């Protein structure tokens, strides 16, 4: 297969574009453009960032593009009027303003009712809670809503003119069940008071449409734009995930997820029963605070990330009794939308830059370990951990994760797996089957038996429990 695929990851902090050789999966060029640091964003900003990253990756000059795929941050509410104009800024997955609506929705149907209806418990990240917020706080805007879509659907619409989505992203809305593969319009009626037009849910290898001329389409053979995916499902596709693999992704969010042929139901509702991008399921736990806990602490200490890593690795392994809860932006797992971060155990001896840096790294590791424990607790197979995301570059984090998780951690070669998965999906839509490009593991990190990791885990658990 000669030619290239274009894979897009429109994530919280930036838009990344990869040009990938179709035959091998080799990345030939990349482009990136930043997104604003906000939890409510005009969705046109994402189109402009995509244009810049697209140009940066040199896509427009190519005449050998076989297909385009888009993955993006999940859950964001893009609600538009009859003219396609957003009625409100898109509320992102990490915007917690709909926490009250979410709590009332859980009270209304009960945890069991929600797991039965959509296998997802509404927390403030879930799109339906954001629509309920819009109805309550911006009724005029809510009354003008004609269509509702997600960030990746919005970009597919701009690239191809097609209004479509896929199972993985639909499963994060709160009004679609990955178990039945159907929308639940009665939930929209109940909590939004109306059923806006929703994008048809395409199958994994289907194309939504073809690339428009303004993006370089229409110059020969039509270029398919695939159905797209939520970013975690995109990463699963990029990693060619198998049952037993567990992905730990450290980006703006921290996510822990696996692939399963059958739906996984967590009766507590803590694990979300999302779909993946292959036709399978993607049980997932997500935190609101991951890489940025480390970058904020580095900023406070006025050091760059290399120096931050040195600091975190040079003090006592349990941070000398200093414990941090990383809930800087509220939290979703555990569901503490109003929480703030905490620092406990300050003494003249413990309050040093080294201990603070280490406490921040261990806080991220422990919040991910909490998610992993939930996944283990519901019986999901955890045979192999794959560490990805921007924060996975942190040597300090890498060094504490195996002891905190109590098992080895595999680090795949550093790549943008979400965008790579989108490119793989594009190949699927273009050729009728997903290519096997393989994944290369760069290193396997083994637990060292460090008692400091265990001490920190116990202290962290006590501090977290004090918020319950
Ligand atoms: N060495 C590092 N240590 C800690 N954080 C890092 C490091 N390198 C990058 N990051 C952080 O990773 C984040 C970006 O990761 P990414 O997975 O692209 O996020 P997202 O997909 O949410 O936009 C940024 O907050 C960035 O500062
Ligand atoms: O809300 C979730 C998953 O449920 C997040 O994982 C978002 O999808 C944002 O991802 P990143 O920008 O952190 O990759």
TrEMBL record:
It catalyses: D-xylulose + ATP = D-xylulose 5-phosphate + ADP + H(+). This is Xylulose kinase. It comes from Kocuria dechangensis. Residues 247-430 form the Carbohydrate kinase FGGY C-terminal domain. PROSITE patterns: FGGY_KINASES_1. The record marks 9 as: Important for activity. Its EC number is 2.7.1.17. Catalyzes the phosphorylation of D-xylulose to D-xylulose 5-phosphate.
């Amino acid at each position: 297969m000669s030619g290239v695929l274009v894979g897009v990851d429109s994530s919280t902090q930036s838009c990344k574009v990869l040009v990938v050789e179709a035959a091998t999966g080799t990345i030939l060029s990349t482009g990136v453009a930043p997104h604003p640091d906000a939890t409510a964003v005009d969705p046109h900003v994402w189109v402009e960032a995509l244009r810049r990253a697209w140009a940066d990756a040199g896509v427009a000059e190519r005449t050998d593009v076989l297909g385009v795929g888009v993955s993006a941050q999940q859950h964001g509410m893009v609600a538009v009027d009859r003219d396609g104009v957003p009625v409100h800024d898109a509320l992102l997955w990490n915007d917690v303003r709909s926490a009250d609506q979410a709590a009332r929705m859980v009270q209304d149907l009960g945890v069991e009712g929600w797991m039965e209806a959509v296998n997802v418990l509404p927390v403030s990240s879930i799109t339906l809670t954001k629509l309920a917020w819009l109805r309550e706080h911006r009724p005029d805007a809510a009354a003008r809503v004609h269509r509702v879509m997600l960030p990746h659907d919005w970009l597919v619409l701009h690239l191809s003119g097609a209004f479509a989505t896929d199972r993985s992203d639909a499963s994060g809305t709160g009004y679609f069940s990955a178990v039945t593969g159907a929308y639940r319009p009665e939930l929209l009626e109940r909590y939004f008071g109306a059923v806006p037009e929703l994008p048809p849910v395409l199958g994994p290898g289907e194309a939504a449409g073809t690339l428009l001329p303004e993006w370089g389409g229409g110059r020969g053979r039509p270029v398919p734009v695939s159905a797209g995916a939520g970013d975690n499902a995109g990463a699963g596709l990029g990693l060619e995930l198998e049952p037993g693999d567990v992905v730990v992704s450290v980006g703006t969010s921290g996510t822990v997820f696996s692939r399963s042929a059958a739906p996984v139901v967590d009766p507590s509702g803590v694990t979300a029963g999302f779909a993946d991008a292959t036709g399978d399921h993607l049980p997932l736990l997500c935190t609101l605070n991951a890489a940025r806990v480390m970058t904020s602490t580095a900023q406070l200490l006025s050091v760059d990330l290399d120096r931050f890593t040195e600091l975190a690795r040079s003090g006592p392994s349990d941070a000398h009794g200093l414990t941090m809860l990383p809930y800087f932006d509220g939290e979703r797992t555990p569901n503490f939308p109003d929480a703030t971060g905490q620092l406990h155990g300050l003494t003249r001896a413990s309050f040093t830059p080294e201990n603070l840096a280490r406490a921040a790294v261990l806080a991220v590791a422990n919040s991910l370990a909490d998610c992993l424990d939930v996944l283990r607790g519901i019986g999901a197979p955890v045979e192999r951990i794959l560490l990805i995301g921007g924060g996975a570059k942190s040597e300090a984090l890498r060094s504490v994760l195996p002891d905190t998780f109590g098992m080895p951690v595999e680090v795949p070669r550093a790549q943008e797996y979400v965008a790579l998965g989108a490119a793989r999906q594009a190949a699927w839509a273009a050729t009728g089957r997903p290519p096997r490009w393989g994944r290369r593991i760069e290193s396997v990190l083994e637990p060292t038996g460090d008692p400091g990791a265990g001490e920190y885990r116990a202290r962290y658990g006590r501090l977290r429990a004090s918020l319950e």
